[in-house]
Amino acid sequence: MEPEISIVIPVYNEEESLQQLFRELLPVMEDLKRSYEIIFINDGSCDKSFSMLYDIREKFPQKIRVIDFNGNFGQHMAIMAAFFHVRGKFIITLDADLQNPPAEIPKVIAKMDEGYDVVGTYRQNRRDPLYRKVASKIVNKITNRITGLKISDYGCMLRGYDRRIVDIIANSNESTTFIPALGQKYAVRPVEIPVAHREREFGESKYNIFSLIRLNFDLMTSFSLSPLQWVTMSGMGISALSFLLVAYMIIRRFIIGSEADGLFTLMAIQFFLTGISIMSLGIIGEYIGRIYKQIQKRPRFVIKKIWEEEDAEK
Q1: Are 309 and 62 in contact (CB under 8 A)?
Q2: Cα Rg for the chain, rounded, in angstroms?
């Protein structure tokens, strides 16, 4: 019999939190009194994460499945791989670091029972450093403005998806994907709810500043042409101002005569225009890079093996 609920958990070097995660998650799922499966995706972990997942699956072979990647392909690719193999009607994604408590899962399920096909969440009383919270708010607002989406917290991965939405996402052929944004885009009846958030007790964040910037560039270029349009409009505006400046300098030369003053002002203007040009080339390069990735048609992830019961498909 197919399970009603599928829990999807990407894992990358989370050996410190896995035992505690499972101790909290299992009672929550049992208390729901509904059929379920838990899918762990080992995203190329270098620590003992995979061996721990293997041991957990051996104890609960009917409930646990483990997808083992050939290397590290990233959190969203790990979730994408699981989406190809889920069997449940409701699919819940959850991080392995325990910052979103498994006890919040019933809240998401309750909203899905009401008929919502995507249940987004935002972290209430977020327990992260101040600089991360401030940066997150700024990025969320900018990203919503650029993409036209309405997501309060892009970084919270505790989310619920109807099977129909998951199938659409899994069958998309984009080279890079941002799961929450795709879910929101394809949803017919989405909703957002607050969920609890904890301080990180185990390990450290897998996202540094560079990877967060990289992730947001992927997100913005995946869902909007606004950056390119901004470059075009900025270029037109700067060209107009430059034309006016040249006209002013020519008129000034005829009326007042040539002079050496203002050299540093002109240098400052030149540096500004050069910076704009470099930034514009960078944005254009982002889109060209996405096209390059798309036409390569390389696999988005490589699965080494799926550990599950042999008769699970029967």
Answers
A1: yes
A2: 25
Report how far residue 161's alpha carbon sits from residue 108's, in angstroms, rounded to the nearest whole number: 9
pLDDT of 162 higher than 90: yes
Q: Where are the alpha helices (DSSP H) in 224-262?
A: 226-255
What CA–CA distance (Å, rounded) separates 197 from 99? 5
Q: In what order do the strands lie in the sheet with 90-93?
A: 190-195, 118-123, 159-162, 90-93, 5-11, 36-42, 64-69, 303-307
Q: Give the tokens for residue 314.
A: 């029967």
Closest by CA to 154, choosing from 138, 170, 172, 130, is 138
- Tell which phi-psi region holds residue 288, choosing left (phi > 0), alpha (psi between -120 and 50) or beta: alpha
Three-state SS at 168: helix
Q: Residue 228: how many CA atoms within 13 Å on its side-chain side?
A: 10
314: pLDDT confidence band, cut at 50, 70 and 90? very low
C-alpha separations of 151 from 32, 83, 136, 160 in Å: 28, 21, 12, 14
Mean pLDDT across the chain: 84
For tokens 């984009």, the residue is 174
Region of poorest pLDDT, from 56-70, 80-94, 207-221, 276-290: 207-221
For the whole model, what pTM was predicted? 0.78
Residues 69, 38: Cα–Cα separation, whole Å: 17
User: How would you class 290 by CB atoms within 10 Å of its CB: exposed for 0-12, middle for 13-18, buried for 19 or more?
Assistant: middle
